[in-house]
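Section 4.2 – Deliverable D4.2 (structural model, holo form)

The reporting period included a commitment to supply a predicted holo structure for the target in complex with FE2/S2 (inorganic) cluster. Inputs used:
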Amino acid sequence: MEKNETKERTLSRREALEWVARAAVVGCLAVHTCDVFAEEKAGGAKGLNLKDLKDIGGGSAASGSGYVVVKTDKGVAAFSDVCTHRGKNIKVDGTKGIFCPAHGSQFNADGSVKKGPAKEGLSWLKLTLDKDGNVSVDTKSTIKDGTWTPLPDAKK
Ligand code: FES
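Output (structure tokens):
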């Protein structure tokens, strides 16, 4: 082979799929990062609407970026989405309710532990709720456990 000869190489199907997968991961990270920055630009408050909550049995809930919002007959609450077992992010779904996908801990609608290995409940976060059901969560401010915010129609 001569010194200046270029060695052509074709990608195998597997290599091509790996590149596509890598590009997809980078794209998803970029979109997620933009969403987080958009929320941060809005004054550090993060939020959703009560209409976004899904039934979890005993209440309804949804997770956002860094928080979980729950509505029960006691009112509305927001919890940190950091699992008290080993710090993984909490998720919400209609079957498992508020749960940690890492080791299977589950939490009740009041943030207390329903099933371990977590031993402590989730941290309650400060929130504001407007008359239209928009919830704004301050993920940097914890409040006393059990501090429910009354529902908009209960405020009248
Ligand atoms: S980190 Fe959540 S159960 Fe282990």
